[in-house]
Amino acid sequence: MSTKITALVTGANKGIGLAVARQLGERGFAVWLGCRDHERGESAAAQLRDAGIDARAVILDVADGESVRRAAANIASAVMALDVLVNNAGINLGAPGKVSEESVDGIRALFEVNAFGAVRVTQAFLPLLRKSAAGRIVMMSSGLASIAATRDMTSENWGVPYAGYSASKTALNMFTVKFAKELLADGIKVNAVDPGLTATDLNGHMGDRTVDAAASIAVQLATIGPMGPTGGFFHDGSGTPFAAHAW
Ligand SMILES: NC(=O)c1ccc[n+]([C@@H]2O[C@H](COP(=O)([O-])OP(=O)(O)OC[C@H]3O[C@@H](n4cnc5c(N)ncnc54)[C@H](OP(=O)(O)O)[C@@H]3O)[C@@H](O)[C@H]2O)c1
Predict the structure, then answer these.
(1) pLDDT tens digits for 29-72?
(2) Whose CB among 60, 149, 155, 174 lies 3.0–4.6 Å from 34's, allowing a Cys bridge?
(3) In angstroms, rounded to a whole number, what is the distance separating the alpha carbons of residues 17 and 55?
C-alpha cells in the first residue's frame, strides 16, 4: 500500500491532461492516468515513466459508472489516500452553427462527459480523497462557461457557437461550487480552472498556447496550501500564483 502523495488525472493520455500528469509527477506525486483506452493509457504512462515519473494508467471512462467504480476500487487497493483529483476529461463535438439547430443528443453527450463525468468521478473518489491530509479537486472548465462574457458584445465569447459545450462547462462550474461548500468541513478544496485556448485535438489545434502552459493553472490549484481558495474559477493571472501546500 503506497503512502506517497498521489494524484489522479482523468483524460490523461494526451493533451492538457497528460501535461497536468507530467507536471504533478515532476512535483513528486505518484500519478494515475485515467484513460478510457488501455493502449493509449499504457503508452502515455510509459512516456512519463521514461521521464522518471511514478506513473501508471487506469482504465476510466468518465461516462460509464461501472468503469468509474472499478477504477476507484483499483486505486483504493493500491494507495492509502488520494490527494489530488483533476477532472480533466472532456469532449467537444465540432462546431455546431446555431443553438436552435444543435442536436439535443449531442448536447446530452457533452453533458455526460464534461459535467456528469466530473460529478461521477468526484463522488466515486471522495472516500479516498477524505483520507488525504489536504485533498484537492480541480475541474477543467473553460472561459466559454461564463454567462456574463457570453452576454458581452465586446467579449471574445460573443461570436462563439458551441452552446452545448459552453453550457456543459457552466454546469461544471456550479457543481464545483456545490462540492466546494459540502467539502469545506473535510478540508478538501475544489476549484475550476480555464486553461485558455490551447492547441489540442479537442479544437482542431486552434490557438498557439502549449499544453504545458495550459496545464500550469490546474497544477497550481491542485497543490494549493491551506490558505488557498475553494469554490473559485481561475485562469492565468486571476489572483494566481498561490502558495503551495507543504506535502
Ligand atoms: N484545448 C482548449 O483550448 C481547451 C480550452 C478550455 C478548456 N479545455 C478543456 O481541457 C480539457 C482537456 O482538453 P484537451 O484540449 O487536452 O483535449 P484532448 O487533447 O482532446 O484531450 C481530451 C482527453 O479527454 C479524454 N476523454 C474524452 N472522453 C472521455 C471519457 N468518456 N472518459 C475518459 N476520458 C475521456 C480523451 O481521451 P481519448 O484520447 O480516449 O479520446 C483525452 O485524453 C477538457 O475538459 C477541455 O474541455 C480545453
Answers:
(1) 999 999 999 999 999 999 999 999 999 999 999 999 999 999 99
(2) 60
(3) 13
Which residue's CA is the nearest one to ligand 1's atom 29?
89
Instruction: Give the three cell numbers for residue 25.
Output: 509527477
Backbone angles phi, psi at 45, to 5 degrees: -65, -40
How many Cα neighbours within 13 Å face the side chain of 60?
33
For residue 39 the three cell numbers come to 493502449
User: Residue 158 corresponds to which cell in the numbers above?
Assistant: 460573443
Q: Is residue 247 predicted with pLDDT exceeding 80? A: no
- Count Cβ atoms within 10 A of the Cβ of residue 237 and give its class: 0-12 exposed, 13-18 middle, 19 or more buried: exposed
Q: Does domain 6-234 sit in CATH 3.40.50.720?
A: yes
Q: Domain boundaries in the chain?
A: 6-234
Which residue lies with its CA nearest to atom 34 of ligand 1? 11
